[in-house]
Design brief:
The chain contains 15 helices and 16 strands. By secondary structure, the protein is an alpha/beta fold. The strands form 3 sheets. It has a 7-stranded mixed beta sheet with strand order 10-11-12-9-8-13-14, with helices on both faces. Strands 5-4-3-6-7-15 form a 6-stranded mixed beta sheet, with helices on both faces. The protein starts with a helix and ends with a helix.
């Protein structure tokens, strides 16, 4: 165990036991301090993240991280007091006049493992839910975003006592030790492969986990779609953060006769989104040399195995700045690594289909995705896809936006994750919804006890009729 972790955890556990049911005023104060931290330091946060990526535009950080973080905090401040209320539940007829209720209760100390791709939002989102639920929290930031991690640790240290929120930075060994702490709940956002290790470490203490993973999220372009608009929204969703988004479209199912049109339209759309790409600072770089090399190898291997590479940008890939212009891949097959692994970058395979049933079957033959996108105007086809596929979340006629809805849960299913958070769903994830039964002074349960005789038998027949 890394020596500094256990004292932090023990201090938070002791503080949690001293104040096991913090009132809304305390929770709201913590949320307001978190909101002020983000608002007042948004420029420094964007600069640190950009430096970690080599380049990420301030506007992208504002849109994809600062805005949803503040919205999520404001949503919790508006509704959190109501979430805390004890909820009445019905009581079985034979047990009346007793009463039943659900009592939300903080779990205690929550662990949050933060990925590198959206290091602010994917720290502050779970943290908002944990604070609204009345918990203490420890966060492990990614070693791939060291400048932001250092800044966030300093800002949190200035705004919060260590027994309220603590930020831990370090390498893989620190992450392993962190996941092995006996948290009351552990939320991990990252790859499926690492998620398995996190779950294994948490199982030592039977720590419940929420795993926000990834996988290959499909976009289906229906024959009734507004085609050019569909291509634009898929590209916007794919090029945000250069595709380094867990819910980015991973591949596109497109009607066979429209595949060539998709490529042509994508070139035109991308040129309008990122003109003069070689000097355009609106396009984000790949986070590390290792990830850049992995993405380049996916494209090279697909080409060597017969795929056609359709480049969208007017600039070459640049390993020094880690700028990787997006490419479309056609002629892909299931044997290619690009069709087996989550891509997590600006590489987009096109998979042609002949019928909608074929497209649905293609999705269902693979692990259940974190997100699914459908572009279609025909209500019957929309309903068919929604009814016949299973995904962590769906956006119809756009991409990504279901994650920004605070009144919808965000989470995966199957290999793309377990559990969910955001809004009240996050409050419930980090709470024990404790069932409480209140017995009445006047009740008939005294008849149901030994010695079992005729009266008991008659009562039993009434119950079982």
């Amino acid at each position: 165990m890394t020596p500094e972790l256990r004292p932090l955890f023990d201090a938070q556990r002791a503080a949690s036991l001293r104040d096991q049911a913090p009132p809304w005023s305390v929770r709201a104060d913590r949320l307001r301090r978190l909101r002020a931290l983000v608002r007042e330091h948004r420029a420094a946060i964007a600069a640190a993240i950009s430096a970690d990526f080599s380049n990420r535009p301030r506007q992208e950080t504002e849109l994809a991280e600062v805005f949803p973080t503040l919205e999520g905090i404001d949503h919790a401040l508006r509704h959190g007091k109501r979430w805390m209320r004890v909820r009445r539940r019905s009581t079985g007829l034979w047990f009346k006049p007793a009463s039943s209720r659900l009592m939300p209760q903080p779990l205690g100390v929550v662990g949050i493992v933060v990925p590198w791709n959206y290091p602010l939002y994917l720290a502050a989102g779970p943290l908002t839910a944990a604070l609204a639920a009345g918990n203490r929290a420890m966060l492990k930031q990614s070693e791939y975003t060291p400048r932001f991690a250092e800044l966030f640790a300093r800002l949190v240290g200035e705004a919060f006592a260590p027994d309220e929120i603590a930020v831990v930075n370090g390498d893989v060994e620190v992450a392993r030790a962190f996941a092995s702490l006996p948290f009351d709940h552990l939320l991990f956002t990252g790859s499926t492969e690492v998620g398995r290790h996190v779950m294994r470490a948490a199982s030592e203490h039977l720590t419940p986990v929420t795993l926000e993973l990834g996988g290959k999220s499909p976009a289906i372009v229906g024959r009734g779609a507004a085609f050019d608009k569909a291509v634009e929204r898929i590209l916007v969703g794919k090029t945000l953060n250069a595709g380094q988004t867990c819910i980015a479209p991973d591949y596109v199912l497109v009607p066979r006769e429209q595949q060539a049109r998709f490529v042509e339209t994508a070139r035109r759309v991308f040129a309008s989104l990122y003109p003069d790409l070689g000097r355009n600072t609106d396009y984000t770089s790949i986070v590390s040399p290792r990830h850049f090399a992995r993405l380049a190898s996916l494209v090279d291997e697909a080409r060597a195995q017969g795929a056609a590479v359709e480049r969208l940008g007017d600039a070459p890939a640049d390993a020094a700045s880690r700028r990787l212009p997006p490419v479309l891949l056609t002629g892909v097959d299931d044997g290619m690594r690009v069709m087996q692994e989550e891509i997590f970058g600006p590489v987009l395979p096109l998979v042609p289909y002949d019928t909608l049933e074929e497209a649905i079957g293609y999705v269902n033959a693979r692990p259940r995705p974190l997100a699914l996108y459908l572009f279609e105007k025909q209500r019957a086809d929309i309903d068919r896809v929604l009814a016949q596929t299973v995904a962590g979340g769906v956006t119809v006629n756009d991409t990504l936006l279901h994650i920004a809805q605070d009144d919808l849960p965000f989470g995966g299913v199957g290999a793309s994750g377990m559990g969910a958070y955001h809004g009240e769903f996050g409050f419930q994830t980090f709470s024990k919804m404790k069932p409480v039964f209140h017995q009445s002074g006047l009740n008939g349960l005294g008849l149901f006890k030994p010695p079992y005789g005729k009266t008991f038998e008659r009562m039993l027949k009434l119950l079982a009729r």
